[in-house]
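step: validate -> pass
step: tokenize input -> pass
step: predict -> running
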Amino acid sequence: MSTETRRNRNNPSSVDNEKAECVNAIVFLVSRYHELSNTSKVSPNVESDFDNAKVLIKDLIDRTLWAFSEVRGKYSKKQIWSQSALKAYEESQIDEICLEHPFERARMKSKLVSNPEFVGQNAKEAIRTFLDRFCLGVVITREEHRALNRLERNLGFNDATVWREFYRQAGIELVDPTE
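step: predict -> pass
step: emit ->
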């Protein structure tokens, strides 16, 4: 992502451009991952190289998921915040807040590389829709993060709003700038 794009996060077209860059990167990485998975294994050394390359690709996908969730700014008022995180931020307690992903990146990554919907002619549209629905960043306090980690998180990818109930169960009150 370009420096110029990152400087214009208040500009909707810049945000859309940066999201598009992330989507294009993931489309490329997922297609390369599938190519490696479908290539005939010639020897144990080649197979090991393929496995190493797939690990690196997954790492790059993970980093791109982070970038996508931070397009509007890590601690921007355009993100969804908990009431407690807003209070901590207003009191300059930045070290007490963090950006949390309701849908775990590890699960998103696995879904992206294992689902044939994300490869081929309609991959770009399918990946963009998936990321817009599930690759969210929510600013919460570190204590709220610990509360979430104490609960069993088993959020599926069928309902993009199910995470809100999960947060409610942890006692987290949310402020959503889109509502």
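step: describe -> The first helix runs from residue 3 to 7.
step: cleanup -> pass
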